[in-house]
Amino acid sequence: MTTVLTILGMGLVTYLTRIGGDLLMRNRELGPRMTAAMNAVPPAILTAVIAPSVLAVGPAEAMAGLVTVFAAFRLPLLATILVAVASITALRTLL
Amino acid sequence: MGPEESGAWRECRQGIVAILPVVAACVPIGVVWGALAAERGLSLAEIWLMSAAVFAGASQFVAIGMWTTPLPIAAIVLATAMVNLRHVMMSASLQRRMERFSAAQRYLAYGWLTDEAWALAEARAAREPLTPAYYAGLAGPLFVVWPLASLTGGAFGKVMGDPAAYGLDFVFTALFIGLIVGFRSAPAWLPVVLASAALALITYHLLPPPWYVIVGGLAGVAVATLQAPVARTAPLEA
Predict the structure, then answer these.
(1) B87-105 pLDDT per residue, tens
(2) Among A6, A73, A74, A78, which would you mutate to test the B interface (most chain B Cβ atoms within 10 Å of its Cβ)?
(3) How many domains does chain B divide into?
């Protein structure tokens, strides 16, 4: 029973975080600063999520990350992912 | 209704195609999580319930790491809220793209918000209006597959081995790098990315895990507000 309660508690707080931004920001008239802030959320959050897994794990991850960035500038998303998986597998074997 | 329906179905199918690589990569991760949860004594029903009700991988790994007897309920729920705090910023940004959603569709959509579906929805919204059908195509497959993968891991244990051995742990990193680069025409993109990466790394070394996401994310957003006059004159992509 405590297990189910814990799970439901986790689900509830997670749902609150998911609607939180909507509750805070909906129907607000955004000035240029807030608009700039909101436009920056996707690259900022995505970068923060992956930065340690690229730059704080080891040389293989850092080098594969660099390869992936170069690939991302030239290739579509799926090809970028394939290049990334191939390079991380090769670099982990080599290093 | 005919053309309307086929339009919605096309949108939904495009969403499914966009999320497929993510779905494939989340299967082994879900299996590993399910195996860990089973080791900690969760039943199959509880494993499925947590993956469906919480539906947020990182926080589920953190919670299972804290799963001891007696169960520290308050600490686990608090840790879950902290790990998932980034969702607040995500929904604050995404709600601007949801003019085509009814209130009910919006609150249902938020229940399925994940890093991956959100990022792909933002990428779509930068090119054309985001529709409920496209979002359902993105979020629906993950919502079905993630609990099933967890259940499989709970039932069959660690048969799969370590996803890192196949480079699968790097799929999410690669997807995110691809999406970050895809946003590169946004104003102040490079300063935002550099500030987020730098502050995330510093915080990662100083504070326990969830904080680097929050601090790094806020740092990038702060840099963007400093560059706001530039943002006003530059053509917005969205």
Answers:
(1) 998 999 999 999 999 999 9
(2) A6
(3) 2
